[in-house]
Amino acid sequence: MVTRITAEFEAPEYAEAALGRIRSSMQGVYSTSFVYDRISDKAERLSRGTSYTILPTAVTSHNYLTAVLESPASRDIIPEPRRSRKTTVFIVCDGSRTHEISSILTAMGGSNIDSPQS
Question: Which residues make beta-bridge pairs with 58?
């Protein structure tokens, strides 16, 4: 019987490590995949950047005088749902291997493991 197991991880790197361990040590695994919000990668890069703020300082009769304030960007400029790197893992395997795969997923940091027999 073919079964699908799903689990959640905090980051794609943890999910890749768990799937690599399962593929290398388990027989009867037909396919593995994972999905996550790829915009979170962009948010991670933006949080290491610089933020610029333009401040109007004075208005003359012909021009505006402004100042630029440079500061390191923080994660607070990215909305919370876009910062999440939660990753969902999908494993299609032989039904007799669900307990072993579930234990590997748990040991590697997986949560909310859903399989038909566990």
Answer: 65
Q: Summarize pLDDT for 7-30 with one digit per residue, the tens.
A: 999 888 999 999 999 999 988 899
Question: In a 10 Å sphere around its CB, with 0-12 CB exposed, 13-18 middle and 19+ buried, how is residue 55 labelled?
Answer: exposed
Q: What is the pLDDT of residue 38?
A: 74
User: Are the beta carbons of 23 and 54 closer than 8 angstroms?
Assistant: no
Q: Which residues contact 68 (CB under 8 A, 6 or more apart)?
A: 52, 53, 54, 55
Residues linked to residue 68 through DSSP beta bridges, in sequence order: 54
Question: What is the H or E stretch that residue 93 is in?
Answer: strand 87-94
**All domains of the chain in start order, with CATH:** 2-114 (3.30.70)
